[in-house]
Write a structure and sequence with these properties.
This protein is 53% helix and 12% strand. By secondary structure, it is α/β, with parallel strands linked by helices. Helix 1 (4-12) crosses helix 2 (16-27) and helix 2 packs antiparallel against helix 6 (132-141). It is globular.
């Protein structure tokens, strides 16, 4: 049995081993572990610690790991404590993780002011680990100043991470017009900052052109109430040569400070909390339907009727819910 009070106290004292144990606990699917995890999260809430949560995404090969390591090392040199929650792709059959981020961020993983936690996505929608937001809360309680949440960069993971981040950063490589056309409007609409990475060597001039292209695209797309003048914006960086990282960090701080001053910061977090509350209710109801012995058979029968074409999915769902909630 987990001593919740002792574990919570160790986390508040920034005990890294306790933090790692706690994240393992919240990632577990066992009912007793889930009960302990919820107690732990509630026990840590009164501390009220907050970090700057930065969501980070980008297509494979854009240099996310190199960027995170260089960016993280820059922050730790400034005396900041940095946590990296990196969600790895998982096998849909075994659930095993393909690649661990610690092997790709050797210098940062050895930094005493950094904490890296790779987590398999466990086939969750969008590739975001099932309990990532709880891991974020644990890292905040442990006193980290900045939390980087890296997505696998596929599907709807960007939207999900944006719902648990204060800032969302999209990392892209230098590209031509055809590649720009391929970037989906949806992700452009949630990005607070676009960083064109690999702006070095032969790609330097291409990065400058790409930055200009994205700047124009952002100007056409939107101006949100929660954006100050000039945001969202596109910048070029070189994680390999540590160029532009300080400017990118300054822009992130400027945006965060403006949102706090204008009241957008608190509202964003409140809206996110309500979003995840609704998500938890939906997940709980589905679990009740599929796992509760009293409803399993009813759910399975409805699913079979849909599979055989006897009923439409919507009609079957409506009938099932009406029967269970009457």
């Amino acid at each position: 049995m987990t001593d919740i009070k002792a574990l919570a106290q160790s986390i508040l004292q920034s005990d890294r081993r306790a933090l790692a144990r706690a994240i393992t606990l919240v990632e577990s699917g066992r009912d007793d572990h889930r009960a302990d995890a919820l107690k732990l999260i509630e026990a840590l809430k009164p501390a009220g610690r907050q970090a700057l949560r930065i969501g980070l995404s980008g297509t494979p090969g854009v240099g996310k790991s190199t960027f995170i390591e260089s960016f993280g090392l820059m922050l730790t040199k400034q005396g900041l404590r940095v946590a990296v929650l990196a969600v790895d792709p998982s096998s849909t059959r075994s659930g095993g993780s393909i690649l661990g981020d610690k092997t790709r961020m050797e210098l940062l993983s050895r930094d005493p002011n950094a904490f890296i936690r790779p987590s398999p996505s466990q086939s969750q929608l969008g590739g975001v680990a099932r309990r990532t937001r709880e891991a974020v809360a644990l890292c905040e309680a442990a006193g980290f100043d900045v939390i980087l949440i890296e997505t696998v960069g596929v599907g709807q993971s960007e939207t999900m991470v944006a719902e648990m981040s204060d800032l969302f950063v999209l990392l892209l490589a230098p590209a031509g017009g055809d590649e720009l056309q391929g970037v989906k409007r949806g992700i452009m609409e949630i990005a607070d900052l676009i960083l064109v990475n690999k702006a070095d060597g032969d790609l330097k001039s291409a990065a400058t052109r790409t930055q200009a292209d994205y700047t124009g695209a952002l100007r056409l797309l939107r101006k949100r109430a929660q954006d100050p003048e000039g945001f969202p914006k596109a910048l070029k960086v070189s994680a390999l040569e540590d160029e532009g990282l300080d400017i990118a960090w300054a822009e992130m701080q400027q945006l965060a400070d403006w949102r706090k001053a204008e009241g957008h910061w608190g509202k964003r977090r409140a809206d996110q909390a309500v979003h995840w509350f609704a998500h938890a209710v939906e997940a709980g109801l589905l679990a009740q339907l599929t796992e509760n012995p009293e409803t399993q058979d009813t759910y399975a029968k409805a699913a079979r009727d849909v599979a055989k074409g006897k009923r439409s999915p919507d009609a079957a769902a409506q009938a099932l819910l009406s029967k269970l909630l009457r």
